[in-house]
Amino acid sequence: MSDSVVFEGISKKFGNAQALQDISFAIKKGEFFSLLGPSGCGKTTLLRILAGFEKPDAGRLYLDGQDITDLPPNKRPINTIFQNYALFPHLTIWENIAFGLRVAKRSQKEITAEVEKMLYLIQMTEHAYKKPEQISGGQKQRVAIARALVNHPQVLLLDEPLAALDLKLRQKMLIELDLIHDNVGITFVFVTHDQTEAMAVSDRMAVLHKARLEQIGTPMEIYESPKSSFVADFIGDTNFLDGTVSEMVQKEYSLLTLVNFPNVLCFNDKQLSVGDLVHLSIRPEKIHISKERPQKHPLHNIFEADVDDVIYKGDHTSFGVWVGGHKIWVNQQHSRFLLDEKPIRWKDHVWIWWHADDGYMLERYKNPMEDIEEMASSADITRNP
Questions:
Q1: Most buried among 124, 330, 343, 351, using CB within 10 Å?
Q2: Residue 243 neighbours by CB under 8 Å, 6+ apart
């Protein structure tokens, strides 16, 4: 699969604020690709540079091998869908979709054929002669997608397109977006701050933070193998434990000495050495919890714990438990529900455990004790100005 879009060393400033810093990566032709990150990370700026609405201060932008960095927006085979849909209220759905084709001076026969094809694709044929005010938010979104696709762009940009919809409708539209993408086969670039949305539809995604590219990969790669503490924390929920590598075990595993937590065995994919600082990430759903002590296993981390929080969430329950001097979160999936089963309650004494392969070691460049010293120092300054 060849590259469709290539960002090469893209940097952008607004005044003294660095919006993007040396961004380089490629999007493959036909991919559903997401730009993900918190507000202010640079994802919308990157999208606007791709659309031609902003020009980078440095770097080049390529589309199908052609340098389009200096090409104006109307000369780029790229269309954008925004949050507000921007449908013409005085035109029917049919006329809204046909608008771009009329501007391009296509023949009436071609316009009719293309609009009918799009109406069928978005399942809106029966609503063709309604005005935008007569259809729902989800239907407006579909019309906006059809209007953007009818000119056959090489790339479709979607800037937080589902933000105005309620949760159930967003979930439905995600499925429809994915189906439309599969049908038309062009490159989709989807900007969102919602991790769940990005992971649900993306072939690959890029995570941005403070103007820099943190990681790029498939949703599974980014969730299961985060490259930084920010990515581990931003994508899904996780528990962090700080400490050092104290011993190597069976070449592939390390024993970690942690702050306010018992020693933990972890797979050492980072090839860290004894004495190295480590930031351990363990997802709540990877941890098991029970009132009964589990069977011993050489690669299981097993600890006694006390339940401090119980939060029922329908499909699972989240437990906040204390182990030593550290509180961590455990998710228990409700695969079955038995009315006669005694649930784990607040203040129960329990056992938790996880496999050594399920923890993920991230390098830490600062001793965790320094954080404690800084906090104490800050408190002293506050008390004694």
A1: 330
A2: 256, 257, 258, 259, 261, 264, 277, 278, 280, 368
Q: Where a domain ends, among 224, 256, 291?
A: 224
**Shared-domain flag, residues 203 and 254:** no
Laid out side by side, the sheet with 261-267 consists of 261-267, 253-258, 239-249, 277-282, 359-363
Q: How far apart are CA 130 and CA 144, in angstroms?
A: 14
| Co-location of 25 and 105 in the same domain | yes
What's 195's domain CATH number?
3.40.50.300
As a whole number, mean pLDDT of residues 204-230 equals 94
Q: What's this model's pTM, rounded to 2 decimal places?
A: 0.84
Edge-first strand listing for the sheet containing 58-63: 17-28, 3-14, 58-63, 66-67
Query: Whole domain around residue 299: which residue ranges?
Result: 237-366
Determine the pLDDT at residue 177: 85
Instruction: Tell me how many domains the chain contains.
Output: 2
Return the pLDDT at 324: 87
Q: What is the pLDDT of residue 383?
A: 36
pLDDT of residue 340: 57
Q: State the average pLDDT over residues 189-218.
A: 92
